[in-house]
User: What shape does this take?
Amino acid sequence: MGIKIFAGRASTDLATQIAKGYGVPLGDVKVSVFSDGEFQPSFEETVRGQDVFIVQSTMPPTENLFELLLLIDAAKRASARKIIAVVPYFGFARQDRKDKPRVAIGAKLVANMLMAAGVDRLMTMDLHADQIQGFFEVPVDHLYASTLFLNEIKKLDINNIIMAAPDVGGAKRANSYAKNLNCGLALCHKQRKKANEIADMTVIGDVAGKDVIIVDDMCDTAGTLTTAADLLIEKGAKSVRAFCTHAVLSGPAFERISQSKITELVVTDTIPLKQTHEKIRVVSVSTLFADVIKRLIHNESISSHFVIS
Assistant: This one.
């Protein structure tokens, strides 16, 4: 039994590092693009009887998701023994339920498409909603960036830490960090008029004189994050740092981060950073994914990577 690691075009750099961490070269994939934009990926080496790991985050454009589906289908038709989709950032995860009438449950649809394509297992990180694991009828390895972020927070060597959630939905995550680091917890409560636009925000908890660390699963337009950071400073916080797994960073995100009072934003490389920024630092998840792949192949426990949820 052999193992081969391949990458979609959206995650080539991360996949290269994962393959290096595992100890194999990255597999050869060629993508032919037709004049009208249609594309056809192909494996340029045999995968017959192999355990095939396909690394591809599914952030926009939707071609990233469709390329992953085509690669899974190609591996199945080329007689791969098992096909494991490594999706560091699982797109459409914000559509995990019907939050208003006449909308799709996009995360469930994506799960159905991945299973229909022929995936045997999914490996992902920090899903926007934990219940998405239940949308799959195949095993899901749901990893947490907290196993990396906790070490980074400890390296800061700050004694006056208080954890903060940028919204009520992130309270459980922030509370888990607070318990692990034996520190206090603050909550930012926001009210939205519409998506990506905050109408009002308040802080629950005493942050005066504290070094605040905000944790979240993703940073999209950075509206919530920067509004929370500025408000926390207004309430007397000494400094505000943020740890967000997925650097979506769309629209005015970089401009907002530049203009905000946030000291530092730490993200992972589940999504390639669109541009460098003096306030943004990237922590790689490649070692974590490489280790989990090793444990999976050797039928070893991966529970040690579930430090926090």
About this structure: The mean pLDDT is 94.
